[in-house]
Amino acid sequence: MNSSVGTQNMSQDLPKQRFERIMAETLVHQPYKEDFAIGTRIKHNSAYNTESDDTSAHSEELKQLCTKISSIWKESVEDMEKEYNEKTQQVEKSWREGIWNNKWAKYLEHVHNTIQVKLNDLSKTPHDTEVNIAFMLSYVISVFAMFIEEVVEDATRLGKM
Questions:
Q1: DSSP character at residue 42
Q2: Do the domain assignments include residue 2?
Q3: What are 51's strand-pairing partners?
Q4: Structure pTM?
Q5: Of 103, 88, 94, 109, whose CA–CA distance to 153 is shortest?
Q6: With contact defined as beta carbons under 8 Å apart, do 40 and 62 qualify?
Q7: Residues 6+ away with beta carbon under 8 Å from 131
Q8: Distances (CA, A) of 116 to 34, 62, 84
Q9: What is the pLDDT of residues 94-134, one digit of tens each?
Q10: Contact status, residue 100 vs residue 26, Cβ threshold 8 Å
Q11: Where exactly are the transmembrane stretches of this chain (predicted)?
């Protein structure tokens, strides 16, 4: 009966298919590349049932900050991708893509989510939020330099060059 042969071939192909599917899914949905969004709650003056001037001013500042941070973030991510590809071009492609998707992309997603939370924290002024996020972005860039060094060192050590 040929079913055991078919099962054997199928079981050998499954990990490859699963890996390709995971890589395709990762490439399709990259939450860390999305714009940031403000989900502010508008406080109303109960006496007049109108938006308070302070909240309105903060809302506009937060919208502008959100647009600014989204632009800076996207440019930074594009620069990181470009630098990563340039500095790891000698590394085996599937291995370096796996490291990016399984390590750095997850880190970027975490940072993206943290920035999103900070942008929606109405207890801070827009200025304080901007300063805090600027600090985070500079930290991400410095960590990225170390990440690339580690990837190249690991690739060399593991014979992935």
A1: P
A2: no
A3: 44
A4: 0.70
A5: 88
A6: yes
A7: none
A8: 10, 12, 25
A9: 999 999 999 999 999 999 999 999 998 888 999 999 999 99
A10: no
A11: 133-152
Going by C-beta distance under 8 Å and a sequence separation of 6 or more, which residues neighbour residue 100? 81, 84
Indicate left, alpha or beta for 69 from its phi (over 0: left) and psi (-120 to 50: alpha): alpha
Assess if residue 12 is contained within a domain.
Answer: no
Residue 89 DSSP SS3 = coil
What is the rounded distance in angstroms from the CA atom of residue 59 to the CA atom of residue 30? 27
User: Are 53 and 128 within 8 A, CB to CB?
Assistant: no
pLDDT digits (tens, 9 = 90+) for 5-37: 444 444 455 444 444 444 444 454 677 788 787
Has residue 8 been placed in a domain? no
Angle between helices 105-119 and 126-158 (to 10 degrees): 170
Tokens 């991510």 — which residue?
Answer: 77
38 in any annotated domain: yes
